[in-house]
Amino acid sequence: MFFLKRQYSHYAIAAGAGLALALLGRFVFASDILKDAGGLLMLCFLLLVPMALGAVTAHFTPPTTSRLWRTVLGPVITVMLFLATALLFHLEGMICVLLISPLFLLTSWLGAFLYVVATRNASDNNRTYAMAAFMLLPFVAAPLEAQLNTPTDSRRVENVVVIQAPAAVVWQHIIRVPAIQAHDLGPSLVDNIGFPRPVEATLSHEGVGGVRRATFERGVEFLETVDVWEPRRRLSFSIRPNTATIPPTTFDEHVTVGGRFFDVLRGTYELQPAGPCRTRLVLYSQQRLSTRLNPYAGLWTDWVMSEIQRRILEVIKRRCETVAPTPV
């Protein structure tokens, strides 16, 4: 029994050492020193810290353990411990944990694999030096990355629905959207990860210059100023978050709409004929994404925006088809 306990203690030490390194990286990159350079969205944190986590986990795992455990299973356990700790102690929100988890898993495997290959025939001292190099790399490279400019991408997300109703009916349901109940929207993963549900959209007056107030749960509101008004054809507006009504705890700082990393700039509805008493309704939005990993982050922001837009279109479709006359 003592032998078993001692054997498993190596795995606990390996996971604990990797967890300690990841937590150190989290606090260092979230500090004021690196916050202006991107903080937790820097490549050094998203890629090099988990790579070091994998190397540290592999270093403290007994060499007699299988390669599968040292390079895959061990890093997975350590990454999951770090993500669970971040959620448990409210270091990060669910959306951020979901966003970084694939990166942390893949690069932790890479770090463990590189460490095992590089130290295959090395002495104990050289293995320790290799582990130290992996550990120091994120923190040494961070000041260099801070000198780089953050790229900005413009993205467009489009959703389409065909409605069994004439354009005149559909038009009245998009310029204003009466109160939406939770059961109208149905379940969605975006609710589970913390995004507030849409509630309603009001309009100050019809025509160019009118202001739509799109409200969401938990006090989130967007001011949408109409600059294209083509009845039964096209409605387009600029979007600005009403920061006076949005509590600071509603969004994680890394996914705040209108923040330094992400913003929704415009929204457009287009109505197209699709047959007798049928309308093809297109909703698309334009966003700004400013991170050092835009192609990857864009996969997540596109999915979230598409899911929000899809649910709104489904509500409009049901309401239009409820009031629209059935064609003969």
From TrEMBL:
Regions crossing the membrane: 40-60, 72-91, 97-117
Keyword Membrane in annotation: yes
Record's protein name: SRPBCC family protein
InterPro entries xrefs: START-like_dom_sf
Species in which this protein is naturally found: Hymenobacter canadensis
Record keywords, A-Z: Membrane, Transmembrane, Transmembrane helix
Keyword Transmembrane on entry: yes
Signal peptide (UniProt feature, chain positions): none
Domain of life: Bacteria
Gene3D superfamilies: 3.30.530.20
